[in-house]
Amino acid sequence: xxxxxxxxxxxxxxxxxxxxxxxxxxxxxxxxxxxxxxxxxxxxxxxxxxxxxxxxxxxxxxxxxxxxxxxxxxxxxxxxxxxxxxxxxxxxxxxxxxxxxxxxxxxxxxxxxxxxxxxxxxxxxxxxxxxxxxxxxxxxxxxxxxxxxxxxxxxxxxxxxxxxxxxxxxxxxxxxxxxxxxxxxxxxxx
Length: 190
Description:
Elements: E1 2-6, H1 12-25, E2 30-35, H2 42-48, E3 54-59, E4 64-67, H3 73-79, E5 83-86, H4 93-112, E6 117-121, H5 123-128, H6 134-142, E7 149-153, H7 159-164, E8 167-170
Parallel strand pairs: 1-7, 1-8, 2-3, 2-6, 4-5, 6-7
């Protein structure tokens, strides 16, 4: 099955990790590639302890990226050096290389048939920014071994992906304490 967790609300990665834990409890093998992330999140410490039943890889840098015009000046200033802004269609070459290498590694894992559940965390965001191509993802979905569950997370899941999905969960933000200026909290968002 192809599962997509998308939407503007909190919880997409959290839901995917919950599925990973459930799969591990059932004796399944889980592969996770986290796009646009570094090893800076609390859950990664725990997940790495499940090896070899779970493989966790990340590809990205410890900063966010945004297309020009996406962030209001005030928000862009608040991010400071933690965000790299690029012209639409021209992502930073080094970031693009990292995403392509990560996707290639994930595609190898899928095609190997060694994993029962494959989670491509934040792949929808990588697609949105043009860091991974539709063709690459569609080829991967076409090559999905039978019996392999794949989960694709991140905001802005494209319509073509949604049309292929067997399950779609959209996280909707109703209220978030970020609006009150509360930063990411260790163990909750980070």
